[in-house]
Amino acid sequence: MDIKHDIVSKAQDAKNASRETASLSPSRKKEILMAMAVAVEKARDKIIFENSVDVEAAKESGLGQALVERLTLDGQRIAAMASAIREIAALPDPVGDVVSEWIAPSGIKIKKVRVPLGVVGMIYESRPNVTADASALCIKSGNAVILRGGTEAINSNHAIVRTLLAAGHEAGLPDGAIQFVETADRAAIIELIKLDKLVDLIIPRGSEAMIRFVREHAIVPVLAHGKGLCHTYIDKSADLAMARKIVFNAKCQRPGVCNAMETLLVHKAVAKDFLPDMCAVYSSAGVEVRGCAVTASIVPDVIKASDEDWSTEYLDMKVSVKVVTSIEEALGHINIYGSGHSEAIVTDDEVAAKKFMEEVDAAAVFHNASTRLHDGGSFGLGAEIGISTQKLHARGTMGARELTTTKFLVYGGGHIRE
Amino acid sequence: MDIKHDIVSKAQDAKNASRETASLSPSRKKEILMAMAVAVEKARDKIIFENSVDVEAAKESGLGQALVERLTLDGQRIAAMASAIREIAALPDPVGDVVSEWIAPSGIKIKKVRVPLGVVGMIYESRPNVTADASALCIKSGNAVILRGGTEAINSNHAIVRTLLAAGHEAGLPDGAIQFVETADRAAIIELIKLDKLVDLIIPRGSEAMIRFVREHAIVPVLAHGKGLCHTYIDKSADLAMARKIVFNAKCQRPGVCNAMETLLVHKAVAKDFLPDMCAVYSSAGVEVRGCAVTASIVPDVIKASDEDWSTEYLDMKVSVKVVTSIEEALGHINIYGSGHSEAIVTDDEVAAKKFMEEVDAAAVFHNASTRLHDGGSFGLGAEIGISTQKLHARGTMGARELTTTKFLVYGGGHIRE
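ok -> structure tokens follow
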């Protein structure tokens, strides 16, 4: 009962604040965000201290290495957090944008304009920088936000929110615009996702289990940022040197994130040329290779992959490898096991590339590039609130613009329906 | 168990078909739709006969007059159904549209293109023309569709689907692209809205209770076409002759639809000039007027409105009338009781109009025009699948383009994440 009361009251406060955030001027929002960026830098040591409490607890509780890595903040990551806020401040303001404007045959004039969504509920795990990114993007887009981070990062998140709020209010952020849910109790999530009169959108970002839980219980519309079970397919016409560079990057540059590659598919025609070398490179980098039977026949020292491997998002220094007999088999495998996040083909054959890019059903499909490039920064779109793996509203990397909706403004001169 | 099996099998068939519908050429889709339009005209008498069975049953079961009116088909409405299909055929094809295209700082080339959603589940009530509109719009946008109409229209809907399918298949519609759920059992809806591996979007269109039911049980993303509790506010600076024309149209032109006006708000400064006349006009047109205390003091013969009236979507020849002391009071009333559908202000004061249009949180806001103009046809956008009352993905009238999603196509030359 206490949790319910607490969540409803936070949501009500956010709803009230959202009327004010919606009408903040672009320059005021910029000032608020710049003040927040400075404050985050100033609070660096305090945030790192609070984060170390979380990291210690996570290690003690046996959280996996990749997850601990995601959780950990250092000076560089704090600086990156501040610079992401500055980047968001510098983005074009989406609110009020005229998407289209026309005069209908009846003579009425119609404008479709961008307006804030209202209140965004953000449910996320692990990475504390999401606290800053989500807050900044919601403010930029004129929304109020309710943050419910993972319990493993609660001290880090709370320190970040306190920092943002203190600086924000001084710069003119309306009271109540950023709400932080402190309780570790999952009941708080259930309450939050049922408040469809107060909350306009829920963004769950994290484990598959958490997202499924949200989807099953939510009445508020959900925009899922689901898992990334990403593949790279090395076609028979691939430039193998380029392929090596790409799949090494896709797996190793930062294995704990959703756009890292989990499964490598190799056409049988190039498997013998490609795999021995590639597996050796992976092994010496500390990547555990789990191969199909054909892979094992070519590279005897790989671990044999089980069926489970094809559907596992390792988020770790592990990769599954499968040799396929055709591009169709690769497409079939991806359409069964892929999570609709990021998929890549390496080939010099334009026909194969076109087929792959058309037939793969995913938010982003890459030709001769690493799946790690799927994010707002690499796309040149600025900071993102996450990568949507669903098809509704926003698919793939989403930023401030995707946190708005539209409204038709219709101007008549006594027009009626005939 | 039988129902579950039936729904899963229909959804699986739709999913398989959706790969083919996605790759239909624009000209093939046009041919399919033109053939369907002709077929609907040819089957006119058969459809009207099947409809008469539904209408008789509805009358016997005591369905309200407005709902019976929505259900009834005649020669004119069949002709309108065919012409809506032709209109959809003539619309620009949204699939493959390049939404944007740019080269990122890293040098990768990015294209954001429109692709079909996949499988759309349509759950609707009453109006049988939705069967034709939804099928045509889903085909136009490259989707497969699963139709679950109201049981009160089952014979009409089934006759329309049989007609569309026969003509469609002859013109090249893939098998399985239009699925029709025949059972009246509500369990079918529950099964359908949980199939998130097979169905990409659920559109519930109908009563508030049905939509709430869908929202509460769905795992598949939902795009609700909810109720229209629409207001018109007559400002103190309104042209009262224009106001009369607009609110008569908004209430009476077709009271059984979602963009009809339900509540009239009148500024106190013009209430005495405006209301006696207006109420007399309504009365002689057969509209029952339910007024607030102030209204009753001006027009003694109105029925006294209860609190419930402000939150009732009559869909009938009834109107509630409230005198307000300011535009702020009108805005407050709308933000409490409005359903976020269509709201209007009649005024010659540009400042008041601007305030109203900015502060009302609805899919469409009208200045000096009837709320009845909120639809794809009046907006010059062509036939619509409905009017979305939620903020995500599509808000307000939505057509073929809103039944698509996007996909990023990324072209590199060995690009990796640094």
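The mean pLDDT of chain A is 95.
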